[in-house]
């Protein structure tokens, strides 16, 4: 069985059911939100709500002229709004998503984790990131709800940072049928 917080998978447990008998099982959330992230874009809820074009995607195709321009986009932590970040990244179409981030010396020191949550992907699309140019490693949005954690070693962050998030896949496609994924949230934390 799966427990969802809104639409974010927060716990899973196995249950054995036998015909003709009653069964009960307990399940509790295993999700722990970071109390003081260096930044958070979006909300950990398993949905792309709040991102660019999310309000239209259940009834419009990504190529629909009524959709806002998908980008690529540069998001500046502290001054940009999540609604400027496209809800989906398409390989070769609107990737990478570029995030600029200024940190003080204390926040720039030490290891960190960049977490990218996706709600659905197509053709094996998944995130790949770089920090300051160095590699660190269909009318629906519901899918497997993958969360990707990228370890950022001590010394990789500086006081002025550029993070790029791209789409990688062994597959290819055309236009909005290229490998892609839909965002849930992006977070940098210690």
Key features?
1 helix, 12 strands, 190 residues, single chain, five-stranded antiparallel sheet, 2 domains, Jelly Rolls, five-stranded mixed sheet, mainly beta
Structure, briefly:
It comes from Diplodia seriata. The protein has 190 residues and is mainly beta.
SSE layout and pairings?
Layout: E1 2-5, E2 8-12, E3 39-42, E4 74-76, E5 88-90, E6 97-102, H1 105-108, E7 112-122, E8 126-131, E9 134-135, E10 147-152, E11 160-168, E12 180-189
Parallel strand pairs: 4-6
Antiparallel strand pairs: 1-2, 3-12, 5-12, 6-11, 7-10, 7-12, 8-9, 8-11
Structural class: mainly beta
Shape type: globular
Count of runs of 4 or more consecutive helical residues: 1
Average pLDDT, to the nearest integer?
92
**CATH architecture title of the largest domain:** Sandwich
Main beta-sheet annotation: 5 strands, antiparallel
CATH class membership of the largest domain: Mainly Beta
What's the helix-strand series?
EEEEEEHEEEEEE
User: Could you say how many structural domains there are in total?
Assistant: 2
CATH topology of the largest domain: Jelly Rolls
Unreliable parts: none
**Cα distance, first to last residue?**
31 Å
Estimate percent helicity. Answer: under 10%
Rg over alpha carbons = 18 Å
The CATH H-level homologous superfamily of the largest domain: Galactose-binding domain-like
Oligomeric composition of the shown chains = single chain
How much beta, percentage-wise? 35-45%
Organism: Diplodia seriata
Pfam families: CBM-like (PF14683)
Protein name: Putative rhamnogalacturonate lyase a
GO molecular function, one term: carbon-oxygen lyase activity, acting on polysaccharides
């Amino acid at each position: 069985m799966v427990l969802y917080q809104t639409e974010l998978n927060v716990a899973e447990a196995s249950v054995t059911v036998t015909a003709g008998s009653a069964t009960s099982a307990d399940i509790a959330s295993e999700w722990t939100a970071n109390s003081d992230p260096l930044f958070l874009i979006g909300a950990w809820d398993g949905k792309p709500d709040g991102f660019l074009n999310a309000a239209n995607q259940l009834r419009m195709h990504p190529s629909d002229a009524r959709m806002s321009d998908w980008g690529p986009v540069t998001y500046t932590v502290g001054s940009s709004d999540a609604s400027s970040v496209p809800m989906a990244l398409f390989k070769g179409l609107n990737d990478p998503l570029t995030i600029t981030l200024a940190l003080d010396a204390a926040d720039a020191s030490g290891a960190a984790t960049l977490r990218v949550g996706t709600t659905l992907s197509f053709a094996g699309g998944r995130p790949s990131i770089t920090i300051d140019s160095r590699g660190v490693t269909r009318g629906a949005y519901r899918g497997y709800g993958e969360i990707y954690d990228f370890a950022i070693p001590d010394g990789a962050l500086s006081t002025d940072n550029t993070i790029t998030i791209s789409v990688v896949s062994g597959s290819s496609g055309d236009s909005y049928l290229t490998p892609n994924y839909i965002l849930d949230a992006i977070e940098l934390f210690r």
